[in-house]
UniProtKB/TrEMBL annotation:
Protein name per its UniProtKB record: Holin
Taxonomic placement: Bacteria, Pseudomonadati, Pseudomonadota, Gammaproteobacteria, Enterobacterales
Superkingdom, natural source: Bacteria
UniProt cross-references to InterPro entries, sorted A to Z: Phage_holin-like
Keyword presence, Transmembrane helix: yes
Listed transmembrane segments: 20-43, 55-79
Organism listed in the record: Salmonella newport
Keywords: Membrane, Transmembrane, Transmembrane helix
Length: 92
């Protein structure tokens, strides 16, 4: 029997939510998608954790990814001597 809401639907809803967040706040889309991808990866690799704690980890990881993207992106650009901003990579 199939699930009423598939994981692809949940992922699409999450990406839509990240897009709306980026549009509403004026944040760079690369940073928002990077933070979303990092949060999804962090939650997907967690084991033996309850649903409420997983949601809390996801929200915390997403917020830290968005807020820390500039700092980490600047550090990555300085280390690699790359001339373009690496904020989106720093968000992951």
């Amino acid at each position: 029997m199939s699930e009423p809401v598939s994981s692809a639907t949940v992922l699409a809803g999450g990406l839509m939510g990240a897009s709306v967040f980026g549009l509403a706040t004026g944040t760079d889309y690369g940073v928002v998608f990077g933070a979303f991808a990092g949060a999804v990866f962090y939650v997907a690799t967690a084991t033996n954790i309850g649903r409420i704690r997983l949601v809390a980890y996801f929200i915390t990881s997403f917020i830290v990814g968005v807020l820390g993207a500039g700092l980490i992106g600047t550090k990555l650009a300085a280390i690699t001597h790359y001339e373009k901003p690496l904020d989106a990579l720093g968000a992951v």
